[in-house]
Write a structure and sequence with these properties.
Blueprint: E1 7-11, H1 16-27, E2 31-36, H2 39-49, E3 52-55, H3 61-75, E4 78-83, E5 94-95, E6 98-99, H4 102-127, E7 140-145, H5 158-178, E8 183-190, H6 196-199, H7 203-210, H8 222-234, E9 242-245
Parallel strand pairs: 1-2, 1-4, 2-3, 4-7, 7-8, 8-9
Antiparallel strand pairs: 5-6
Helix pairs in contact: 1-2, 1-8, 3-4, 4-5
Amino acid sequence: MDIRNLAAIVTGGGSGMGAETARHLAKAGAKVALLDVNIEGAEKVAAEIGGIAIRCDVTDEASAQAAIAQAAAAHGTARILINCAGIAPGARIVGREGPHDLALFNKTIAVNLTGSFNMLRLVADAMAKTEALNDDGERGIIINTASVAAYEGQIGQAAYSASKGAIVGLTLPAARELAKFGIRVVTIAPGLIETPMLGGMSDEVQKSLIATTIFPQRLGRADEYAKLALHIIDNVLINGETIRMDGAVRLAPK
């Protein structure tokens, strides 16, 4: 898919992998709308790349609908959706203060899973009504973000791992269903990426995690996620797959 002049939406665009992906999309010629509850961060990146920032709660239907409509009014119907919005709280199922807080579990599922599905269904509906972009019949692509925790969740990651495992499970059926519209669905499962989410961990915890990475033995960078996303957009044969990007890390129990 030729990215030039296409409309793109990036959720979680105010920081981390979302922000870096927005930068790479804009550099490649896309018209980018950055959606985030962190509107200050999104506005800063948007000003830098010539995009637009829109406040959006991806878990809320009306908020998502309004944000997609605003993005379409500015740039046209989105042909690219990259879901980077997410949270990663840590809590044990049974901890010192009792059982896992149910509201925290529900919030994690709501942001990471329901939010991604909410955006996927709404943007796919709009994409399906557009004209094909090329001889392959492509109309657009949706890239979701999972995590290696979908496969090797650590102690304290029950909610996070469940939400990301569900994203992996969503990928193939969504790709199969949307194929008739020429819409691809792909998921990236990053490993240990140097983002604000991981930055909240202590140096000791970060070093212990890095030590489990085979090669290269360092944290991944947000621009490496962005580069993979752009390759996926370009390569039409990549569809219905979850791609690990993790330096061969396999997370230990804790």
